[in-house]
């Protein structure tokens, strides 16, 4: 019996990405010009024209049935459970895949059998939002070419490794799903790498960065760090995940100490003019330090505000309810161009 498994499945996870979804799909189809593959849109029940636009293309579209189950992790696993490729390329609906990356990534994985996944160079295209300006200026080792701990902004994975890890994305994670996946894979002895080839253009969310923070709280994205701790606790990947997040956890712990200091200040220094001045200085100190460090008052204010949001989100993340991450996700195939083509050929 001849296998019909394609070489690669490109999974695009999306929620309300009508502005970018056509570009994402077209870039994926272009990358498959000389490669046997399929494109799957994993849609988390978008309420805009994302699906309507996507249905114009020869791809498979699967939709999450339960709106309450939306998360970054569920989008990853949803696309994976319908995929067939020997390799799985993961991107978001606000990204565009560079055509040369896919072939280079597959060659790299074929030449490096101990490597579970490979990413490329990420180009941040959103310059009007402080979040992405800050991200683009950061020197994150996992965004540089060479061995990495996880593949931020997606990459190409070996199906064999994902099967060994039990599942692709943890549906319980509203963010940090790639970090948790990297910890699971590395706990099994797999390696991850990033090659010096442009992989994706990331357009991100335009507009006000503080509005983005509010959205991240409302959607649970701000709870991701606590959710990863909860997901990995008691497992072999726990210390790998904790070590990867140690700087962030130290920072969030420092924010909690700052909160306690602000609460204690009136009782310690009293209500004198000097005491009030000392408490005010304590409150303003982090903003001043970060403004100097970032060489920007706007970035400094945003950085400290974001720390507070993520520090507060740690607790609901730790207390979150979990369901079995590898269980089938309730979903519907709403468009399958390949199946229609097969039926037409038989007719």
Gap between N and C termini: 23 Å
Q: What is the top-level CATH class of the largest domain?
A: Alpha Beta
Tell me about the biggest sheet? 10 strands, mixed
| 3D shape | elongated
The chain-level mean pLDDT equals: 90
The stretches of 5 or more residues where confidence is low (pLDDT under 50) are 343-347
β content, as a range? 15-25%
Number of domains: 2
Specify the number of helices: 14
CATH topology (level 3) name of the largest domain? Spore Coat Polysaccharide Biosynthesis Protein SpsA, Chain A
Order of helices and strands: EHEHEHEEHEHEEHHEHHHHHHEH
Q: In which range does the helix fraction lie?
A: 40-55%
Query: How many DSSP-defined strands?
Result: 10
Question: In words, what does this structure look like?
Answer:
With about 350 residues, the protein is an alpha/beta fold. It folds into two domains: about 10-220 and about 325-340, Spore Coat Polysaccharide Biosynthesis Protein SpsA, Chain A; about 245-320, no CATH class. The protein contains 14 helices and ten strands. Strands 1, 2, 3, 4, 5, 6, 7, 8, 9 and 10 form a ten-stranded mixed β-sheet that branches. The chain starts with 7 loop residues before the first strand and ends with a helix. The model is unreliable at about 345 (pLDDT under 50).
In a few lines, what is going on in this structure?
By secondary structure, the chain is an alpha/beta fold.
What topology does this entry show?
Elements lengths: L7 E7 L6 H11 L5 E7 L6 H5 L5 E5 L7 H10 L5 E6 L2 E3 L1 H13 L3 E10 L5 H8 L8 E3 L6 E4 H7 L11 H11 L3 E12 L6 H11 L4 H9 L5 H7 L1 H24 L3 H22 L2 H22 L12 E6 H10 L1
Parallel strand pairs: 1-2, 1-4, 2-3, 6-9
Antiparallel strand pairs: 3-10, 4-8, 5-9, 6-8, 7-9
Helix pairs in contact: 1-4, 7-10, 8-13, 9-10, 9-13, 11-12, 11-13, 12-13
